[in-house]
UniProtKB/TrEMBL annotation:
Membrane topology reported for the UniProt record: Multi-pass membrane protein
Family as reported in the entry's similarity comment: Belongs to the AzlC family.
Chief localisation class: membrane
Record's keyword terms, sorted: Cell membrane, Membrane, Transmembrane, Transmembrane helix, Transport
Species this chain originates from: Kribbella pratensis
Spans traversing the lipid bilayer: 6-26, 149-176, 182-200, 207-239
Subcellular location per the Swiss-Prot or TrEMBL entry: Cell membrane
Lineage: Bacteria, Bacillati, Actinomycetota, Actinomycetes, Propionibacteriales
GO process terms (BP): L-valine transmembrane transport
Name under which the protein is recorded: 4-azaleucine resistance transporter AzlC
An annotated GO cellular component: plasma membrane
Length: 250
């Protein structure tokens, strides 16, 4: 009678034991400085996750929505965008499309770290925990073993800290009536700005971004929530890839 409940319990313990052993092996491979940097990024993402959970629940969504999105989707930019569009009265379909477009950046990420992730179930799991941060950590290493250690340490660490932050923030959001008063709504735009600034050194990228911003701002008073973000993709028409990149692709 108790066999069905014993099996999942044993399976869960086995998975947890595997994750613990994997993380111990990873941390032994990383040097102290890199491990510290990864730890700080994980904590920072946890704080952003806290703001996401608080804003989502404070905006009227049930607690299970941001938690489910964080586990299944695990893409901070897309999650913030989805919640923001829906909370503003936009269509969930438009919010989903906007989120998918934001996540298209994972395509070149996946190509860049395909040999780092591995094959089989590792490729599936590694794709799920892929973020801007752990890809950057992995690409900054020289040896393949170090790249894998940096990628998995960053991916698993960020996944855990993000989801813990979302739960804590969601619980706080159910108590806090005005999340804007704490400045939590500024956390994600600040993160996005930090990610975008390095790319704006390129003139063509600046032009495309400026056109996209102008189109989005011009359409905001007239279009339903979520559509101005999609219309901002017009800026891509003004982007010109560097000659060096075209030569490499050939």
């Amino acid at each position: 009678m108790f066999a069905p409940s014993v099996y999942p319990f044993g399976l869960t313990n086995g998975v947890l034991l595997f994750i613990i052993m994997l993380m111990r092996s990873i941390w032994r491979t990383l040097d102290r400085g890199l491990a510290r940097d990864i730890g700080l990024v994980c904590l920072a993402d946890g704080v952003v996750g806290l703001s996401y959970g608080a804003i989502s629940v404070g905006g009227g969504l049930p607690l299970w929505v941001p938690i489910l999105l964080s586990i299944v989707v695990f893409a901070g930019a897309s999650q913030f965008l989805f919640v923001g569009i829906v909370a503003a009265g936009g269509s969930p379909i438009a919010a989903m499309i906007a989120g998918l477009l934001v996540n298209t950046r994972h395509i070149p990420f996946g190509l860049a770290v395909s040999d780092v992730i591995g094959s089989g179930w590792r490729r599936f799991a590694g794709s799920h925990v892929m973020t801007d941060e752990n890809v950057a950590f992995a690409m900054g290493q020289d040896e393949l073993e170090q790249k894998r250690a940096a990628y998995w340490a960053g991916g698993i660490g960020i996944f855990v800290c993000w989801n813990i932050g979302v739960v804590v923030g969601g619980l706080a959001g159910s108590v806090i009536t005005d999340t804007d008063a704490f400045g939590l709504d500024a956390a994600f735009p600040a993160v996005l700005l930090a990610l975008v600034l390095p790319a704006l050194r390129d003139r063509s990228t600046r032009t495309a971004a400026l056109v996209g911003v102008m189109v989005a701002l011009a359409g905001t008073p007239f279009l339903p929530a979520g559509l101005p973000v999609l219309c901002a993709l017009v800026g891509l028409l003004f982007y010109r890839a560097p000659k060096g990149a075209l030569e490499v692709s050939r």
